[in-house]
Amino acid sequence: MRAFFTRRNLQIAVALAGLVPVGAGLAGVIEGPGFVGQAGAVPDLTSHFAYLSGLLLAIGLLFYGMIPRIERHGKRFRLLTSIVVIGGLSRLASMVLHGAPGVSMLFGLMMELVVTPLLCLWQARISIDRRAGVN
Q: Shortest CA distance to 70 belongs to which of 3, 129, 22?
């Protein structure tokens, strides 16, 4: 099992997972609230949606920036993971307060509260292994 959890596989996993925030961020900037099916949005809502989508895009790009030397970026990985988890907890609170969103938002919730923290743990393991000289 340990043979699967390699540095290279982590890099691939982060690259694949990063498609979500980069893709959703770009789509949100370009399409505004129409990206989530909200047609005819008002300018203030569109502006806010674009800003938050830009933050999502930036998070994805920052994760991508760590890929080449992923074992050396533990602090940044944990910081970004914390930001993503706080966003996920906010989405979860919204579910409790306002009802369950659609499938794409539930997918985002799983990325935020399950996938990203697991990738962070994997990164920490790779970092420890590298410092200990384990390949």
A: 129
Does residue 16 fall inside a structural domain? Answer: yes
Is residue 1 one of the residues assigned to a domain?
A: no
Which residue, chain included where needed, has tokens 């982060």?
A: 14
Q: Show the domain range for 83.
A: 7-131
Q: Average of pLDDT values for 7-36? A: 95
How does pLDDT run across 39-58, given as a tens digit for each residue?
877 889 899 999 999 999 99
- Cβ-contact 50, 29 below 8 angstroms: yes
Distance CA 123, CA 135 (A): 14
The whole-angstrom separation of Cα 88 and Cα 91 is 5
Model confidence at 2, in pLDDT bands (50, 70, 90)?
Answer: confident
Three-state secondary-structure class, residue 99 = coil
* Residue pointed to by tokens 């790779």: 126
Which of 18, 8, 2 has the alpha carbon at shortest distance from 69? Answer: 8
Residue 40, CB-side half-sphere exposure with 13 Å CA sphere: 0
